[in-house]
Each structure stands twice: as structure tokens, then as C-alpha cells.
Design brief:
The chain has eleven helices and 13 strands. It is α/β, with parallel strands linked by helices and about 350 residues long. Helix 3 packs parallel to helix 8, helix 4 packs across helix 7 and helix 9 packs parallel to helix 11. The radius of gyration is 20 Å and the shape is globular. The mean pLDDT is about 95.
Amino acid sequence: MSRFLNGKFASLEAYTPGEQPQDMQYVKLNTNESPYPPAPQVLKTLAEQDIADLRLYSDPDCAVLKRALAETYGVEKENIFVSNGSDDILNFAFMAFGENGAAYPDISYGFYPVFARLHNIESTVVPLKEDFSIDPTDYHGLNKLIVIANPNAPTGMALTVSQVESIVTSNQDSVVLIDEAYVDFGGTSCVPLTKKYDNLLVVMTYSKSRSMAGARLGFAIGSSRLIQDLDLLKYSTNPYNVNRLTLTLGKATLDAADYYREKCAAIIETRAYTTRELEKLGFAVLPSTANFIFAKKDGVDGGYIYEQLKKRGVLIRHFTKQRIKDYNRITIGTKEQMDVFLEKLKEII
């Protein structure tokens, strides 16, 4: 780093994204992307005029997409916030609602502690239970920004709506943010609770179930006042943070809901198949409602499995935290991709 960097950022530990190596063709099961392309009608959406209109700024209000999202989720337009990926929303949420501190699990999405440090927010890091589940009572009465991925990552395990509601009702003077990046793969959304509680913010993304990780599009649903808070920060930083093409594709994606439900069902089926095959090989696999599984084999180092699979052209995600270093997170791809993964895994073990 240069000698000009603000000193308060000098010790910042940045988020480490999943690797994107270019040295060979990989079966890529490391970043929880969808193995399926966008719906055919979405691919046909863009016209020459859309390209020509790139000379114009995008709509900072994202009005067309907001109305479509509101209709999809049964809320009002003023309950929707749209931004450049859900990470953007998480950043704004830590800025807006973390004044009295934040709380999140010790094993979860790696960006939560990064945002807390970035904004100098004192954090309560809550250990998962021995079985890697979240105990909702650990979050009762904390009265600080509470951030929980549901289903959680990298475990894939989820809280019930009633468990989330217990956290919301016991922290009525602070915001509870539920990160539902993976909810479409078997979880149950907490969006209906946003109509009952003004302190609940549900964050979602187009990156996983809607096959648009490269388009960078996320949205949040909450009370109109919470949305106004997020808008204040958006309009104070980058009002045009969602480009015109992404807005158009985002609306078209909602119109192709049947296609994406079908692909989610295929991923759920492949997840069950992969889990069964891993268990036949002696792996322990956590119960997942996400588009990935978290697995380990006693007596075999998780880092060794990761390295050996990479040498064989298969990428998975390995974490070095002591408590989970024996595990690997495996994105669910197509049935064909998972068969390649299983074949290479058998060679290794």
C-alpha cells in the first residue's frame, strides 16, 4: 500500500472472493454461481436501442424494476431498495444501522466482519452451536444491528421463520438484517414479516437462483423508512449504481419465473443426489437448503481434498478457520458436473 492511504484503513483485512483461475478449463464449484444460463427470453430481451441508450444515465430510482419486484413479493414499491449486488446493500446497512454495534455468527459470510471493520463498528461475534446451527436465543435482546444469512453460508443450514421472528421481536430498537441470498433453494423467506415489523430488512440477490452473478443486481425489502435510509446513502454516494442493461434484464428475469423455479428444482434434486453419493464415500454432509453443501471426511484433510481436486480441474471452496478446516464447500452444478467432481474425488480418497 502507498504512504498516502488513510491510516484507519491500513490494518483492514479485505474480503477474499472465490478464486477465478484462467490457467485451464475447470469444473467450477467454488463460488455458488448457477450452472444454468439465464432464461431464453431474458437472453433475447436486449435490443439495439438498449445498447444505443447506454449513452444515457440509468434511472436512479429503478422504478420499473421496483414495481415488478413489489408485485412479485406482495409489497409496495416504497418497500423495495435496488442496488449493485447485495454486497452493496450490506455495506449500506452496516453504515446506516451499525452505530450501536453489530452481531453476526462466527462462521458465516466473510463480508460481515469486513464491513464492520471498514466502518469501525464494534462487533459481537456469536459462535455457532456444536452442530453448526444458529441458536436464535443467542441474539435475543442484543439491541444492535443483527446480520444473519438464512440459509447460512458456508453451512447451508437455515432458521425457521418463527425463529427469525423471535430475534426481530426481541430487538425492536435495532435493525435485524436477514440475508436471503440462497433462500430459493429450499428455504422459507421472511419477507412476509416485513409487513409486521419495521426493524426487519430482508436482502436478496440475482446472483444465485436467477443466474445473473455477472450483472451485479441485488435488492432489499423492508419498511418504507428503512428503505429511505438506504436511499439516503445511495444518493450520497452513487445514484446511478445499477446500469441500464442490468435493470432491463432484471425485469425480464421476473417475467420468466417458471424457468428459474424449474432450475432451482433441478439444483435441489442434484444436491440430494450429491449428498447421497458423498455419504456413500464416508463423508459427513451438513443438511443444506442452499445451492451448495458443506462436507468433510474423517481422517482426510479438507485442504488436501481441495488441492487435489484443483489439480484435476475441479474447483471447490476451502476455508482455513480452525473449526471448519476439515470441511469444504461444494457448489451444486449440473448432474454432469457433479459426476465429474465425484469421479475425481474417488481418485483422491
